[in-house]
Specification:
Blueprint lengths: L23 E5 L11 E7 L2 E8 L7 H5 L4 H9 L6 H16 L5 H30 L3 H21 L8 E2 L2 E2 L7 H23 L3 H7 L7 H6 L5 H5 L6 H4 L20 H25 L18 H6 L1 H13 L6 E8 L4 E8 L7 E5 L1 H5 L3 H5 L4 H11 L3 H4 L2
Antiparallel strand pairs: 1-2, 2-3, 4-5, 6-7, 7-8
Helix pairs in contact: 2-3, 3-4, 4-5, 4-11, 4-16, 5-6, 6-11, 7-11
Length: about 400
């Protein structure tokens, strides 16, 4: 039922002209499937026209940041997986790089290349879930099944290496939890060789499709100035014409040795954000092919500093010093020198970073995450103002949020 809306209820500037009209407030979510999790959007409407869309968050109640401060540095790594649970290894990477920077740890180059490979696998898996669910929001079902089919193959590769399909905590401070298993190179190369054909089938379904073009073109525009002012990162920022990618601008894990392009578009609408992510998937495959070629079949996968990294199992059985290191690491963790650090990486949704303050103990004194979904979500009001209610669903899909990332 429509109601008169007071100025205090609009939660936005520039809407004074709407006060003379009859408006109503409508809640979208937090149980609506198209909000991609427990997101509530408080819509102020003039009929079907959106005057303001206010994201209301906090329904997930995670508390990751304060929980991490009660855990050792290595234990806190498991919490990073559960933020963006569609790309857990990206979160792992940002966190372990931050701790390694504080401790001045040198990680073997082979381990760095493996980190690149799995980070891009995670990016590809995350984009596949985005593509399938976003197109389903628009009214098409088939593509979701195809995308999940390929994502299963990615999860198979992660499971073969880390032992679990999701939330593997495979990246550890100092390197990796385990070496690559026998047969991994062949299985991974088979996946990479097959993906271009699958990618082409995705394109055949969406290119020129009126359902995609009519729902996305010109919808949810975000200007370059607004994207920068609202701290947007990742595909959202690049679709608005800003060629910002931490893999290029602030390289980590030897990304500067890899040959790849950063997809950029200038329209800033939902259609451009759609195709930036599609092109990123192809670039990820390009990076992974290079990484797989750089990884030697045998070599170090973690630091040799036994005060940081667990000794190999065979050493524990025959070496008392190794057994002591193992006991101390498992029971009390390692100590990190006093200091503070920030480290960001280019995740599939944008900049994923960690700010850590150490007081010299085995647990972080302060542990804060800069999650991309949390910051990117604040672009929604700018994207949806003046559009229709149906365009709000499109905006949520092209922002590509995950609520564990938002309610950190």
């Amino acid at each position: 039922m429509a109601q008169d809306v007071k100025t205090d209820d609009l939660f936005a500037t520039g809407l004074e002209s709407s006060l003379s009209r009859e408006s109503m407030v409508l809640n979208l979510g937090p149980q609506h499937p198209a909000t991609h999790g427990v997101l509530r959007v408080r819509l102020t409407l003039d009929g079907e026209t959106v005057l303001h869309a206010e994201p209301v968050i906090g329904y997930l109640h995670t508390g990751f940041e304060k929980t991490a401060e009660t855990h050792t540095y290595q234990q806190a790594n498991t919490l990073t997986d559960r933020m963006d649970y569609l790309s857990p290894l990206t979160n792992n990477l940002a966190y372990v790089l931050a701790v390694e920077k504080l401790m001045d740890i040198e990680v073997p180059k082979r381990a760095q290349y493996i980190r690149v490979l799995f980070s891009e696998l995670s990016r590809l898996g995350s984009h596949l879930v985005w593509l399938g669910t976003h197109v389903m929001d628009l009214g098409a079902m088939s593509l979701l099944f195809y995308c999940l089919r390929e994502r299963e193959l990615i999860l198979d590769l992660i499971e073969q290496t880390a032992g679990v399909r999701m939330n593997p905590s495979y990246f550890r401070v100092g390197g990796l939890a385990y070496d690559l298993p026998e047969g991994f190179h062949e299985n991974c190369q088979r996946f990479l060789d097959g993906f271009p054909r699958w990618m082409q089938s995705y394109k055949n379904l969406v290119q020129g499709n009126p359902l995609i073009e009519d729902r996305l073109k010109g919808v949810g525009r975000l200007s370059k100035e607004d994207a920068l002012a609202l701290s947007a990162t990742g595909p959202i920022l690049r679709a608005s014409g800003v060629p910002m990618d931490l893999r290029k601008s602030a390289p980590y894990c030897f990304y500067d040795e890899f040959d790849f392009d950063v997809p950029v578009r200038t329209g800033g609408d939902s259609y451009d954000r759609f195709w930036v992510r599609m092109e990123e998937m192809e670039q990820s495959v390009r990076i992974m092919n290079q990484a797989l070629a750089k990884i030697e079949p045998v070599g170090a996968y973690t630091t040799t500093d036994r005060k940081v990294s667990l000794p190999p199992r065979e050493e524990i059985y025959g070496n008392m010093e190794a057994l002591i290191h193992q006991f101390k690491l498992v029971s009390g963790g390692f100590r990190v020198p006093k200091g503070e650090v920030y480290q960001g990486v280019e995740g599939p949704k944008g900049e994923m970073g960690f700010y850590i303050v150490s007081d010299g103990g085995a647990r972080p004194y302060r542990w804060r995450a800069r999650t991309p979904s949390f910051y990117n979500l604040q672009t929604m009001p700018a994207m949806t103002r003046g559009g229709l209610v149906a365009d709000v669903i499109v905006a949520i899909g092209t922002i590509d949020i995950v609520l564990g990332d938002v309610d950190k």
